[in-house]
Write a structure and sequence with these properties.
Layout (H helix, E strand, L loop, with lengths): L1 E2 L2 H6 L1 H13 L11 H13 L12 E7 L6 H5 L2 E4 L4 E4 L10 E6 L2 E11 L2 E11 L1 E3 L5 H10 L3 H6 L3 E8 L5 H31 L7 E11 L2 E4 L35 E3 L2 H20 L9 E10 L8 E7 L5 H4 L5 H30 L11 H5 L1 H4 L7 E9 L6 H11 L25 H33 L19 H4 L6 H6 L2 H12 L8 H53 L24 H11 L1 H17 L3 H18 L10 H11 L1 H17 L4 H31 L1
Parallel strand pairs: 2-8, 2-15, 9-14, 9-15
Antiparallel strand pairs: 1-6, 3-4, 5-6, 6-7, 10-11, 10-12, 10-13, 13-14
Helix pairs in contact: 3-5, 5-7, 7-8, 7-17, 14-18, 17-18, 18-20, 20-21, 22-23, 22-24, 23-24
Bound molecules: adenosine-5'-triphosphate.
């Protein structure tokens, strides 16, 4: 079935309307939302006012939302009035007055389901296809910005996340004119309205827990950046004028990773202290963006706009900053449209297209990572847009983050093809909710498996251990000082009980487990520890506050570290079993065609099929080569088999020979041998190389592998092999050097 042209859609509107009405008559009534907005507000208000209600499910890391807007007055008539007559290639007015016809139907609001009605042409004439897409939430044309704000920002507690040192990111995606800016501006103004009220409540709670008088504990810095093609500029500054092409002239801002691995373009960061100041800043920056939109070509729909609000907690000066990142993306269909434009515009559109595709890869990888509870490679270094979004894509980041993508579609049937593109871009980000699992067996290294009693016992041990460590360190300093004065301190009795300050039973009441703590933001954990350290509800003396803050930060870090490493172990086990499966699959296919093979081990001398001595390659090498060549491996073997059969030759010999040739090629391409190193040696090599350099090398290798369609897991291992080899060489030369020195 072919897609219908704009001409045929508009001239066939009566037919499509009747097909739509037949279709609608057969549909069940749309499903609405599972909660009312009043219920969302109620839960939120309670959470803010009630200290004990901090235990809540943080839900998914990536949420997908669809939105369609109402048709605007006379829009259909304006937008679709003159259409090209495809037969004659001339513009003709096909209808006197073009009335709106629905291209999107909301089938369910939560979980979201949109049905796009796509006009197409069958052998017997025009017809309609109905394509259904899933999301977490869907907003029909009657939903206003206030409700969108409540069901996204409020329901997911994004402001509290940011104020607790986490990262919230909202991405608006869709065709030009679909309503991205309308949504983002709506959200931005409401965020400006509420952020300081939420900050006041959270600030008061935190300050009270610390026994500090000043409740004004947050500092806010705002930046606004525009990315047009590869060029970034600061939207806080007005443009310096317009060039001959009618484009705004702006100072370019470089986007690079700094030495610490951060991507912080040099933008004007404006400090804001109230809703009014934030609102003013947003309005001015948006006005600067719109100034350019009134110029000859609306740059606003061709550029990405990124508003970032950074939040610093003055009482936790060393903690990571919270970030709220709001991104109004460039129109998604621009590349096709740009074909009629000059080279510069086409380059810019190609760049936008690339960045949107790369963004898709990153969001998809992130969603997958969250759903599978482990690490996957996220290629965020591939372009400037995803580099700017590093905080949400960097797997090393220790901050909790939540990403919300709002995919916008036009309501018109004439835009259905674009709508299908938009919905199929965003829909795959939706992940299944985590499967309800029975209680996992106890694992001392995985906090997610601990019961209430095990959690209490771990917390008691951790606090005690850390207080003892502090005591030990202080004793050492004091005893050294005493030794200088010729005195000797009484040795410490390590069995002597210590005051951990934090009452763990108070910190971990009822049926609370480590799972609850692991989901908690660090600031919330510290706040709870400070509360649990209070005796008779009296504020703690300053010296104790400092100790509790520092120890509880360490305990939270240790808990998070245990969760992360447990997740990595799960992930590695998944990867390993997948690798095995891939090998078994390859083997299965080979067995089907080659017949008589019985051994479970591939390509070894023991197998009856092989006359060649495969003993010269290890199983690991053979598996790696097959994984790398994937389907090519089978194709080559099948071709050898077919040829031998046709020519009446020895099939086993031909197949084995072909396999051997491939192994030789594989070796010649760089001796891709996966070596096994002891974990301690890898850890030593890592520490010696430097963690940042190590990770960069691995990441680069994986990106290169992604580009070359080579197994990225193999690339990772190969990169590690190279670095451990280097480390071995370095150590050997030091040894030799050391040995020659000592001679
Ligand atoms: N939900 C809505 N309700 C009412 N009007 C809307 C809604 N969404 C968008 N509009 C209107 O539709 C028009 C196009 O919306 P908007 O400018 O937000 O689109 P856009 O996707 O940001 O386009 P561009 O990519 O060109 O910037 C505007 O006039 C806007 O006011």
């Amino acid at each position: 079935m072919a897609a219908a042209s704009a001409t045929s859609i508009t001239s066939n509107l009566p037919l499509f309307r009747s097909l739509l009405s037949d279709w609608s008559a057969k549909q069940p009534p749309p499903k609405g939302f599972t909660t009312t907005t009043e219920e969302i507000s109620e839960v939120f208000d309670k959470r803010l006012s009630d200290k004990a209600s901090g235990l809540y499910e943080t839900g998914k890391d990536v949420l997908v939302t669809f939105r369609t807007r109402p048709p605007l007055e006379d829009e259909a008539a304006e937008k679709f009035k003159a259409v090209v007559d495809s037969e004659e290639g001339q513009e003709v007015q096909v209808q006197e007055k073009v009335e709106f016809c629905e291209g999107i139907t909301l089938a369910s609001a939560e979980p979201g389901v949109f049905v796009a009605h796509v006009p197409s042409v069958k052998w017997n004439g025009p017809t309609l296809q109905h394509k259904s897409f899933d999301s977490d939430l869907a907003f029909g044309p009657q939903i206003d910005n206030e409700e969108v704000y409540k069901r996204t920002v409020v329901a997911n507690d994004l402001l509290a996340l940011v104020l607790s040192g986490g990262i919230s990111c909202i991405l608006a995606y869709g065709q030009t004119g679909s309503g991205k800016t309308f949504t983002m501006e709506g959200l931005e103004h409401r965020i400006a309205r509420d952020l300081f009220a939420v900050a006041a409540v959270m600030g008061r709670r935190f300050a009270e827990a610390e026994g500090v008088e000043d409740h004004d504990i947050f500092e806010f810095g705002v930046t606004f950046l525009e990315l047009l093609g590869k060029h970034a500029s600061d939207l806080v500054e007005p443009p310096e004028g317009v060039d001959a092409r009618g484009e705004p002239i702006r100072k370019e801002v470089p986007i690079q990773e700094d030495k610490a691995g951060d991507v912080r373009p040099r933008l004007i960061s404006t400090s804001v202290r109230s809703s009014a100041e934030l609102e003013d800043l947003i309005n001015n920056s948006l006005a600067h963006r719109r100034t350019s939109a009134t110029a000859r070509n609306a740059t606003s729909s061709r550029s990405h706009a990124i508003l970032t609000i950074r939040v610093k907690n003055k009482l936790l000066p060393y903690a990571e900053e919270g970030q709220l990142i709001l991104v109004d993306l460039a129109g998604s269909e621009r590349y096709e449209d740009s074909k009629a434009h000059d080279k510069q515009r086409m380059d810019e559109s190609r760049e936008n297209n690339k960045s949107l595709m790369n963004l898709k890869d990153c969001v998809r990888a992130k969603a997958k990572m969250a759903a599978e509870e482990g690490f996957v490679h996220i290629p965020w270094r591939m372009n400037k847009l995803t580099m700017l979004l590093k905080p949400i894509f960097d797997i090393e980041a220790r901050q909790h983050s939540k990403t919300l993508i709002i995919a916008h579609v036009s309501p018109h049937i004439q835009d259905s093809v674009h709508s299908v593109n938009t919905l199929s871009y965003a829909s795959p980000f939706k992940t299944a909710p985590p499967k309800p699992r029975g209680p996992a067996p106890y694992d001392a290294k995985d906090p997610r498996t601990w019961s209430h009693a095990q959690t209490v016992s771990w917390l008691k041990d951790e606090f005690t251990k850390r207080v003892k460590l502090r005591r030990q360190a202080e004793w050492k300093v004091k005893s050294e000082r005493a030794a200088k004065e010729g005195k000797k301190l009484k040795p410490l009795d390590s069995d002597e009980p210590v005051d951990t300050h934090v009452d763990v039973d108070k910190l971990c009441p009822g049926d609370m487990t480590a799972k609850n703590f692991a989901k908690m933001y660090t600031t919330e954990f510290i706040e709870r520890c400070l509360q649990a350290a209070r005796k008779d509800e009296k504020p703690l003396p300053q010296s104790q506050t400092t100790v509790v803050k520092s120890i509880s930060t360490e305990v939270a870090g240790q808990m998070y570290y245990l969760v992360i490493t447990a997740k990595t172990r799960t992930r590695n086990a998944i990867m390993k079993s997948r690798k095995k499966l891939a090998v078994v699959d390859t083997y299965g296919e080979f067995k089907r065609t080659a017949g008589s093979r019985t051994s479970n081990v591939l390509w070894t001398g023991e197998a009856p099929l092989t006359k060649y001595n495969y003993g010269k390659y290890t199983d690991e090498e053979l598996n790696m080569a097959q994984l790398q060549y994937r389907s090519t491996w089978n194709q080559v073997l099948w071709a050898a088999e077919k040829k031998a059969k046709e020519e009446g030759g020895d099939v086993a010999e031909a197949v084995s020979k072909a396999a051997e040739e491939m192994m030789e090629k594989w070796k010649a391409e760089g001796g891709r041998v996966m070596l096994k190193f002891p974990e301690e040696e890898i850890a030593e090599a890592k520490a010696d190389t430097g963690y940042k350099k190590w990770d960069e090398h691995v990441e680069e290798a994986m990106v290169r592998a992604d580009n070359n369609k080579v197994d990225s897991q193999w690339a990772r291992e190969n990169a590690i092999r190279e670095m451990v080899d280097d480390y071995r060489k370095k150590k050997a030369s030091q040894r030799d050097g050391g040995a020659s020195n000592s001679v």
